[in-house]
Amino acid sequence: MFELLAATGVRRSELLAFEGRHLALSGDRPLVKVRQRARAQCGRGMVIGALKSRHARRDLPIPVALADRLAALQTPDDELVFASPLTGRPYDPRHIELRVLSPSCSEAGVEWAGFHTFRHTVASRMFASGRNAVEVQRWLGHHSAAFTLDTYVHLLDGDLGEPLEPLAISTEPFAAEVAA
Description:
By secondary structure, the protein is of the alpha+beta class. Helices cover 41% and strands 11% of the residues. It is elongated and about 80 Å long.
């Protein structure tokens, strides 16, 4: 579960709603399809429903080794990939955070980390690898590149980089016109 979060940066609500049919794991470019989300509903617990926005629908490539581990789960198309073994329903993210993520983070000395840290890390890695704001926006399922930049601009290198070389301007066409 956490490896998939680290590879994709999906929202925790999206992760908990993955069904077997959302995994395209064969071939040399496996991916996960973000199509729904899990959320708490008063009196009903965790329920599966529509995504946060139309921009949240996306297909994200994953490493082949991770695809192999997910394929080994043999999740039927209509079942959740990460379901409670007792109920078959989506996990409650608060319980995962309290029982698994927080203790693991404490042991690692990063008590401040949480579910969103995975998303933030994916954005950081994408910008560090030279991806542009639109690529990161689409990957994370944001509604606009401006929102992505507002949220993650502090991740961009503050250095201005190398100077731009001047444009080479050819005067040959003008010289030919003047001579004519």
